[in-house]
Amino acid sequence: MYRVFVLLLFFFSALFSKTDSLFIYHINITNPKSEIFHIELHTPQIDSQKITFGISVWSPGSYSINNYWEKIQSLRAFDSLNNELEVDRIDSIRWQINNAQALKKISYKVKDFDDADFLDTSELDSTFGYYNGTALYLLPIGYENYEYQIDFNLPEDWSVETSLDSISPNCFRAKSYDELADSPVLFGANFKRWDFVHAGIDFSLVVKVNSDFFPDSSIAIIKEIVNAQTKFFSDTPVTKYKFLFNFNENSDRFRGFYGALEHLNSSVYYLPYIQKYELDVRNNFIGSTISHEFFHIWNVKLLRPKELQTFNYFEPVRTNLLWFSEGVTEYYSNLLMVRNRIVPENKFWVDIHNKTEESGFVQYLDGGNSLAEISENAPFNSFYSFYSKGALIGFYLDLKIRKLTDNVFSLDDVIKVLYEGYAKKKIGFTENDLITILNSLTRTDFRGFFKDYIHSSEELPHDYFLSLVGLTRKRMLPYFGIHFFLNDNDEAVIDYVEENSPAAKSRIKENDILLRINNFELNLIEDVESKIYSITQLLQDLPADSAATFHIRRGNKKINLSVTPILKERELSKLIDVENISDEQKIFREKILYGKK
Asked: What is the mean predicted confidence (pLDDT) over 336-352?
């Protein structure tokens, strides 16, 4: 009897102490048509006289400033007898309750971001809901390491999907506010879900789409990606992981905003639905996107710039290393897929070529700033360069390290030194730490590399680095001097003719419509999406020393004009082998793609 009493006393004492340090959010969505989340936050006993609640201004993984505070409505505080307590609005993102010891709950409403429709905000309508944690959860400042619970009151046929630990179907628990904020929530009716275990990890593939969905290809490539990345790090930092896909079949709703966002134990994908593309994720963007987001469980979730080691949700993140967090992730997410034979190597080179083409343009979109500046100013500006120029920096770093050490070391080793020395010890790294590791491995000073390519807005020396692996994007090709586009009838219309070019000398004019080149009928090209590429390739394959006959329509007339091209160095639409490629270049390329062994 005594023993039973002691055990029961211990049980109830433990239960009380657990709930006594627990913040509980009750989220009511029984009227989703209102597009408003009704929230009550029940608090444990507060010992201090005052408590301040704040709403974040940014979200982990998404570094831009968000106006979450604008969506907060009707914030009120109550004691245990439901008497209202006074709430002082300190500023746009903080509320203070002076009689905190009497506090039992606060209530507030959050209007969804129907004007944004993106991954770090929220969405709610009659059939579906989504939110990123920082968009909804007020943070009790000073209580970040308490436990948090979320209870949902949903329409009868709705369910919830999140990576948080489940207490019951509509109740979830987080060990800290960081875990809570970094665990997005998807809810609605008729989700499609597939659970599977691989590499000791419990996975879920959750899909929101009205059409049929075929998961086999997605699950297969997820398993291969997990194998490749866990082998690379010799480590698996998660025991569970969810892929949360929202496929929207109304593409107008997105207005061009698509993407994916990494989280602590999940990733969210907000994409337009292309019928049955899930059957071929290996060869389209979805496979590489999954690879990118999953690589983040190591690079940025564990391996972090110093400024990201401890989250301050109320100040913009300022670090000059976001190019590393995103660009190097982008580089390895594609490279490891080739290295492990998930995709053919040509896909990697196509991606590298595309990034060389994009790098100057995206830097222009980012205000012409350097990668370091773009990283540091990310909360206030766009940051397109991370995914193109940042990935190229990763590639060129890899090439330079290998060249300097005769393939004894590579960027692989830099990542692993950082992971062992910083990520596992929960220490944030700095640019100087990164340079020190590079210098130590190569016995070369990398400060010049960082000055020239990361702290400068000059165009990268693509041709030099590509030549190390025997590739070029330039060749002497037939030059006509015409530029064209496809009109509404998918006809090739001359956009403009370069001055003094062969086409100008042959009297080809703007607005001429190309019908045939020599004996090739252009209307025989059935694939409209590749028609410009096909015509460009046709022109490049013509002999440079003989005339080509252009059959054109000018107004109501059809005329034939003879144009003799000249040879001129031109940029290609793909990477090709340099002339007289050496065995050394071939071997170097092989080692980059498939590792140094």
From this structure: 95
